[in-house]
Amino acid sequence: MTIRISAEEKAVLDYVDGSGSTSADDLNAVINHYTKIARTQMSKKKTINIQLLESDIEQIRQSRIPYQPLISSLIHQYATGKIKLEN
Hints:
Blueprint: H1 7-17, H2 27-43, H3 54-62, H4 67-79
């Protein structure tokens, strides 16, 4: 899988990997700039279709947990390495 990064993301990676870091003149402006970038990246969503067992959906509904945010959270946690699947 190829991960695409923007020019701004590449600049951040180059900065972190490099040894030529400098102090920011306006730290709050820099923080706000990168906070905006992070929020934009985290808000990008893609709709997918998935088939699930009705019994699984019913069990989740009985627990009163909305199943779409639950599934999204579980996939995100797996993708970021926070949870692992047993083999």
